[in-house]
Amino acid sequence: MASLVCADCRREYSCGEKIWKCSCGGLLNIEFQPLFPIDKIRSRKSNLWRYREAIPLTEDRNIVSFDEGFTPLLRVEISGRPVWLKQDHLFPTGSYKDRGASVLISKAKELGVETVVEDSSGNAGCAIAAYCAKAEISCEIFVPADTSPGKLAQIQMSGASLNKVPGSREDTARAVLHAAETNYYASHSWNPFFFHGTKTFAFEICEQLGWKAPDTVIVPVGNGTLLLGAFIGFRELLQAGIIGIVPKIVGVQSVHCAPLSQAFRQGMKTVPPILKQDTLAEGIAIAEPIRGPQILRAVENSGGAFLEVEEEEIKEALIELARKGFYVEPTAAATIAAIPKYLSQLKRDETIVSVLTGHGLKSTEKMLKILAEHH
Ligand SMILES: Cc1ncc(COP(=O)(O)O)c(C=O)c1O
Ligand SMILES: [Zn+2]
Q1: C-alpha 251 to ligand 2 mean position (Å)
Q2: Residue 39 Cα to ligand 1 middle (Å)
Q3: Which residue blocks in 89-199 are alpha helix, DSSP H?
Q4: Ordered strands of the 3-6 beta sheet
């Protein structure tokens, strides 16, 4: 049986409770025993629910799914070296957030939830809105007012009500808390079920590499839903004896908003809030990551690191990717911009996996601006 356990006071709750944080205010994690029946998994449909016994949902009938996941893992040459790129921009709503939304909204359905609220820099809102539409759960999404118009349209087209909050991403996070008092908070950073969806990223990579872990995984990090999901997933595979070591996890931030990278460099265990500057990489522009200490520990335990990328490097990577046919949003390009930096300090050959996290069609206005600058 799965249970919710507070990261601060260790208080335990049943997974049947409609809660998203501990009564002490602490973050909740899920404790349960995942299983990996490999022969069965191999014979199932190629979506993320093939790892059913590793997903903490009680009844199959509550699964809310578009057959998402098991995205292609492509070998691409970067700086003359082969790197595996997970094509997570090809999810139904155009970002990897569908991994978390499918599991979290399935759990909401299992709990009999009728309305959810969520705050997002855009993509998580798009994902939660679409899965709520499928589950017939009503949903209100809070976003910063300056979020990409494509994402705002996508959220509204799903039938969600949209609440545009003036100011920063942090102002949006504060605005939702009031609504979260009376509605189920489908938060991708607070709610632990989201991470038990994003962890399927690790399962798929291992399976696609022949049930082997890569040496290094390079992922973008703002609130850490992919980074922590990857860490949880690889650790579960390790505990099940399927892999021998958790890969090094490398988190990528924008120089304009790098609170985790800065804290890590200074050997800190917590993450002081920073003053951020505007960045093209809106998806990782998180100045106060809620699970900051947990992210620092995950990167440290994996033997990984943080890398920072400049605006100009993001733009160049975006254009270079698009010229190769990979049309992704700037936040996804930021991750790829960090790969040459990682390769240049590498001392031996490694199997490296990275990811394209969001589709380019979400950011048409940014693309038009870049095109105008280049002509
Ligand atoms: C395209 C894209 N990549 C990466 C991220 C980073 O995710 P997180 O903030 O959970 O670390 C986001 C978050 O919104 C995103 O939209
Ligand atoms: Zn607690």
Answers
A1: 28
A2: 33
A3: 97-110, 123-135, 149-157, 169-179, 192-198
A4: 12-14, 3-6, 28-31
Q: How far is the CA of 285 from the centre of ligand 1 (A)?
A: 9
What is residue 328's DSSP assignment? B
This prediction has a pTM of 0.97
> What residues have CB less than 8 Å from 81, skipping those under 6 apart?
343, 352
Atom of ligand 1 nearest to the CA of 227: 11
**Rama region for 159: left / alpha / beta (φ>0; ψ in -120 to 50; rest):** left
Question: Cα separation of 342 and 328, whole Å?
Answer: 21
**Ligand 1 contacts CB of residue 294 (under 6 A):** no
DSSP assignment of 61-105 equals GG---SS-----EEEEEETTEEEEEE-GGGSTTSBTHHHHHHHHH
Please name the residue whose Cα sits nearest to atom 15 of ligand 1.
Answer: 283
In order along its 375 residues, the chain shows pLDDT tens digits of: 799 999 999 999 999 999 999 999 999 999 999 999 999 999 999 999 999 999 999 999 999 999 999 999 999 999 999 999 999 999 999 999 999 999 999 999 999 999 999 999 889 999 999 999 999 999 999 998 988 899 999 999 999 999 999 988 889 989 999 899 999 999 999 999 999 999 999 999 999 999 999 999 999 999 999 999 999 999 999 999 999 999 999 999 999 999 999 999 999 999 998 999 999 998 999 999 999 999 999 999 999 999 999 999 999 999 999 999 999 999 999 999 999 999 999 989 999 999 999 999 999 999 999 999 987
Sign of the CA dihedral with 55 first, then 60, 62, and 65 last: positive
Task: Please tell me the distance from the alpha carbon of residue 367 to that of residue 360, in angstroms, as a whole number.
Answer: 8
